[in-house]
Specification:
- This protein has a single domain, classed as NAD(P)-binding Rossmann-like Domain (Rossmann fold, 3-Layer(aba) Sandwich).
- Helix content is 38%, strand content 14%.
- Helix 1 links the parallel strand 1 and strand 2.
- The structure holds NADP nicotinamide-adenine-dinucleotide phosphate.
């Protein structure tokens, strides 16, 4: 087995590289300059030279708000890029997102087979990639995740702790519910269930377990774990000037595979392992 990991410098890609090393899995993780998923001739040349047996695609345009004014590039990376990878015919694991579900019914966990309803440029670009993969009907797995955190920056948990250093009170939305998922937990789960053992092709949900929290609850738990005694006030998504619509309720149900850790354990583990 030789895995070609794209997006290896990102939050999930970094965790996957660590998991591959720990499990002594043979992998390649070319930088974007050497393997740009929007560059079809470069992809073909790289694949011919390196002969990977599985592609794990973590490369994506992930700035959801910026995407609203950058639709062409977002679509090019998140949809056309996936089309380019499919052309190789190599088995593909595609990482997708809870954002493909907009305004799902509050309180009902969303199963793998639920119909998608994306809103916004980023969400639609990921939904289109899912549709391309399903229509191609080749050896491929779609793994949807949500609220990824890992490493020291670039995600909700890191932003909250950084804000806690500067402010006496934080305001966090309580009208968006999702499962915050630790990249290290997800990468181990992917390795065990999709790399070291085989799963039927299809759609899977790789998210933390427990009861789906809203972001205010996540912030409160996180601050408690980090022993930062700062009050958290609630606010509504409406008062934030975010360009991209947020899904509201996007709590994914992992019905098909072993569960990931509880989101509270995931957050406390991240706090333990991160210099905060
Ligand atoms: N973050 C979340 O909360 C979240 C939630 C649900 C789903 N997801 C999905 O999970 C996956 C991984 O997300 P992440 O948060 O780990 O992403 P990330 O930290 O934003 O990293 C994105 C990665 O994609 C690479 N990339 C961007 N454009 C590329 C291109 N044209 N060719 C090759 N590589 C390119 C980036 O490379 P450079 O460093 O060179 O720019 C970077 O390594 C994505 O599919 C995302 O949609 C993320």
């Amino acid at each position: 087995m030789k895995i070609l990991l794209t997006g290896g410098s990102g939050i999930l890609g970094t965790a996957l590289r660590q998991s591959f090393l720990a499990h002594e899995i043979n992998f390649l993780a070319p930088a974007r300059a050497h393997f740009d998923i929007t560059n079809a001739p470069q992809i073909q040349k790289y694949i011919e030279a390196n002969q990977p047996t599985l592609i794990l695609n973590c490369a994506a345009y992930t700035e959801v708000d910026t995407a609203e004014n950058d639709a062409f590039i977002c679509q090019k990376i998140n949809t056309e890029g996936v089309k380019n990878l499919l052309v190789s015919g190599i088995p593909l694991i595609q990482i997708s997102t809870d954002y493909v579900f907009h305004n799902a019914p509050l309180g009902q966990l969303i199963g793998e087979d639920a119909s998608t309803n994306a809103k916004g440029v980023y969400a639609k670009s990921k939904e289109s990639a899912e549709k391309l993969i399903s229509a191609a009907n080749q050896n491929a797995w779609i793994i949807r995740t949500s609220g990824l955190f890992g490493g020291e920056s670039g995600h909700f948990c890191a932003s909250i702790l950084a804000a806690a250093e500067k402010k006496n009170e934080l305001k966090v939305v309580e009208d968006q519910w999702t499962f915050p998922t630790r990249a290290a937990d997800l990468s181990e789960w992917i390795v065990r269930n999709f790399v070291l053992s085989s799963a039927a092709q299809g759609i899977y949900h790789g998210v933390s377990s427990g009861e789906a929290p809203n972001w205010k609850q996540v912030a409160e738990w996180l601050l408690g774990c980090a022993k930062k005694n700062i009050p958290v006030a609630s606010c509504s998504s409406r008062i934030l000037s975010q360009s991209a619509a947020r899904p509201g309720w996007s709590a994914l149900a992992n019905i098909k595979m072993p569960q990931l850790p509880h989101w509270k354990d995931a957050v406390s583990e991240w706090v333990k392992q991160t210099k905060v």
